[in-house]
């Protein structure tokens, strides 16, 4: 029987292997150069993923294997150490650090994958292993795209990551959606229809963004691949990276949706 944690863990492995293969092809100049993340170099993206893997492994070990819980200030100490590395070292250590985290997830037995809980530190309560792995996958898949799109403008999120991200990204919608005065104080109900996989749901946009059931009297309709929706919601569907077939009809435009979801 397939465990609910199996899919995100498998996607973490395939995503790691793909990104490592890409990193091995890059020159020192490319590693130090600008990434798809506006304010980060490729090395800084890899540093973020590598330091996050180190922090995530500490949380996993403390929650599931009886290791000592990281002391206050642990995260900052990890970030400072990674920030002090040279770009080549950031890339090199990313590969080792993330491999350790992926292997730690892979080694979990079925009982732990089903019954274990992980205190990630940034949520109000521990979560099950499937949720913990899916949160890591969300971070990993999005930032892997930030690296990949630097060298391929048509890059997409890894297909195996899309379905798990459709579960975790909605949990972040109130944080990643920033309407501010984009709509001039007006509210808009948007029906969203995705393909690959098919999903129908609604966005209620006022002074904040809420995820709701598909509204019967929507003001607008957004139709796009699920992968594109995930990139739109996380600020990664710029005009140069938008595939054909993305359509918006009604009282909002794609450009305004990009402004409402500025990314992180």
TrEMBL record:
Pfam families assigned: MDMPI_N
Coiled-coil stretches: none
One MF term in the entry's GO annotations: metal ion binding
SUPFAM superfamilies: DinB/YfiT-like putative metalloenzymes
Mycothiol-dependent maleylpyruvate isomerase metal-binding domain: residues covered: 12-148
InterPro entries to which the protein is assigned, alphabetical: DinB/YfiT-like, Maleyloyr_isom, MDMPI_metal-binding
This protein's name: TIGR03083 family protein
Organism whose genome encodes this protein: Nakamurella panacisegetis
């Amino acid at each position: 029987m397939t465990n609910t944690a199996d899919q995100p863990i498998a996607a973490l492995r395939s995503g790691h292997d793909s990104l490592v293969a890409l990193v091995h092809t890059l020159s020192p100049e490319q590693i130090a150069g600008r990434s798809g993340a506006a304010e980060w170099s490729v090395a800084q993206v890899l540093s973020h993923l590598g330091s996050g893997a180190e922090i995530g492994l500490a949380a996993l070990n403390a929650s599931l294997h009886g290791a000592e819980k990281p002391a206050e200030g642990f995260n900052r100490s990890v970030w400072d150490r990674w920030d002090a590395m040279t770009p080549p070292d950031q890339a090199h250590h990313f590969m080792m650090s993330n491999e350790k985290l992926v292997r730690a997830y892979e080694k979990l037995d079925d009982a732990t994958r089903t019954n274990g809980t992980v205190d990630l530190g940034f949520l109000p309560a521990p979560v099950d292993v499937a949720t913990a792995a899916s949160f890591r996958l969300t971070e990993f898949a999005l930032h892997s795209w930030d690296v990949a799109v630097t060298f391929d403008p048509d890059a997409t999120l890894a297909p195996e990551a899309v379905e798990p991200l459709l579960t975790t990204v909605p949990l972040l919608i109130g944080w990643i959606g920033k309407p501010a005065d984009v709509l001039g104080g007006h509210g808009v109900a948007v029906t969203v229809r995705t393909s690959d996989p098919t999903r129908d749901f609604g966005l209620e946009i006022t002074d904040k963004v809420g995820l709701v059931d598909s509204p019967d009297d929507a003001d607008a309709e957004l139709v796009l691949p699920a992968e594109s929706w995930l990139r739109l919601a996380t600020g990664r569907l710029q005009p140069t990276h938008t595939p054909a077939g993305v359509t918006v009809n009604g009282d909002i435009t794609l450009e305004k949706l990009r402004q409402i979801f500025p990314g992180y």
